[in-house]
Amino acid sequence: MSRLLDRLHTKPMRLLSAGMILNIVLLPVVGWLVWNMYATLSETGTVQIRLQQLVGRLAHLNEMLTTSARMAAVTGNLDWEKKYRKIEPQLDEAVTEIALLAREEYGKTYSSQIKLAYLKLIEMESLALSLVQGSRGPEAAQMLFGSDYETQKERYSQGLQEMAAAVQQRISERIRQFRVRILEAGLLGVISLTVLLFAWLGVSVVLRRHLTQRRQVEETLAQEKERLAVTLRSIGEGVITVDTSSRVVIMNRVAEELTGWSFEEARDRPLDEVFRIANKTANRKGENPVKELLAFGTVRNMTEQWSLEARDGRHRVIALTAAPICDPSSKIAGAVVVFRDVTEQHRLQEEAQRAEKLEGIGILAGGIAHDFNNILTGVMGNISLARGMIDPNSSSTHPLTEAEKACRQATRLTHQLLTFAKGGAPVRKVCRVKDLLHEWARFALTGSNVRCEFAIQPDLWYADIDEGQIGQVINNLVINADQAMPNGGMLHIAAENSTISPDSGVPLPAGRYVRVRVRDEGEGIAPEHLKKIFDPYFTTKAKGTGLGLATSYTIVRRHGGHISVESTPGRGTIFSVWLPAASSWAPERVVQPTAPKKGKGRVLLMDDDKVIRDLSGTMLRLLGYEVSLADDGKEAVSLYLQSKRNGTPFDAVIMDLTVPGGMGGKEAMERLRAVDPGIKAIVSSGYSNDPIMADYRVYGFRGVLTKPYSMEEVGRLLYTVMNGNSTEAAA
Predict the structure, then answer these.
(1) What is the pTM of this model?
(2) Contact at 8 Å (CB) between 74 and 137?
(3) Helix or strand (DSSP H, E) at 2
(4) What are the pLDDT digits (tens) for 668-714?
(5) Number of neighbours of residue 631 by Cβ within 10 angstroms
């Protein structure tokens, strides 16, 4: 039985045809009984087949006509009207033929009903198309999707069904008459009818299996749809799909968050309205990539920087990829856009580029500052000598004092340049940030009409910093705030403990920091200037150098901290500085005496610059020392060894760190320590940020003398070193 059903499933129509042929072959003996009936049945079968073909064709053409009319109404595209006009004559011919056929064989009741419903449908569709031509598509759609139109379609379909039922009833009557004749003819007719029965059984099996497979396909599609929805919700990137008209079809949760549109609101809207992007690299509005995809079908992976404007006006930097969606026939059916928020990565990249720019300019700045410091050393030294040679009450004292102040101002400028020098490191120690804030703020605001207000946490942590460099940062920020309020105002300086966590949003390692905020009440900074505020030589002030904030940025970075700026035009500016907190406490600040010190002893001075060498020698002699001069490290080593052999060793050595084309202070010190581990040496250089200047004790030096320097600074440092005490770098 199973094998028989399989055969019925695979070849039902062939088996049905075989049964009909068998009837014709096996019943010739009873032909005279059924000849007239057979002729009638044959004619009826022909009419039936033709009628069924016409019914099927009529239903198909009618659906195509309805679809064309409705699409024309919905889309307003008149191409659908052309299709409608092309199909209409064919439908009219089919209706006429079926009406004639039905009227001839079965009366005109059903054919009249079909004709009337058909004419009513044609009339409504023609009127709807006229409305479409008049740009009244919504009215046309309302008509074609209305209840009246559906009622006419039902009448039309009912007429077709009743006509088909009448045909079937007539055929059944003829078949029953034919079976009676066959039964009268004998057993052969029964066998042939049995074969026909099995053929119909095969058709039924095919239909059932077809319906089962269709249900399975529908269930599979539903499962795939649900799986797709779950997948889209779990993707960490924004996904938007559009149709061929560039209207939103699908939108996942991340896309909703980034654009500010919910899927319900964005559905069927143009992509340009929901997904507003601009080419950040070219600083212009970006052409929506979907248009190119739908036109050419090419996959785009945009490497440019794109800015996405959300519904609430916020802007984000995004990475964007787009690709076409194709149907099984490789025809473009839409497009998909995938994007993710890279705002934080973009900000970090800008930070890295800014740091790289500062490193590049640091090499040049260090060389310039070194040469300038040598010149300033000669100027300040000679001024110092001149002041020592004249009566303090002389009228010449004031100009010399003013000239020395100008040199010290120039020295501060070189210190800013030296902050950029490559390889420099802060000379750190544990400091009280509170003391620095009060001291440098008062100094920077001397003579200003700006008042300062402090808000410092009572248990503020100590900081592990270079006191001079961080003082320079505070000085720059306070001067910047003072210049932002030319008519006076209030400057707010706050300091508090800050614990940075990985998700705090501050680009620093997790840990303890001291946060300092400097807020002014000035006009603020324009948005287009905020990104350039820490760039070297960028300034909006007529007399500015553009080095203050750039220097501050470099200093804070080298301390392992971070500096940021917030500003609203018309409402002032806030600078925030994070400095690493120290694990130990700091002693109270003690003001060191500044009086020059004289002494006795033999001093060896090495410097490659003749002006500085002669000037410093004169200073040392006036301070009471016996001086020998050398122009490079090789000569200094030779003089030191010779003096030691003669029994008149030097009590102290002052060596320049950098000697172009010759032996510098570092190499000379290594050789001298090898023969005299107790040597008392001072290192001098115009590169105040050189690693040897920061860690001079590691290299055997007892003190550090930063160019330019005065006679008082040389005397004080030399006295301290020769008396066996260590010291910090001279101020």
Answers:
(1) 0.37
(2) yes
(3) helix 2-10
(4) 999 999 999 889 999 988 765 567 877 788 888 988 888 777 788 88
(5) 16
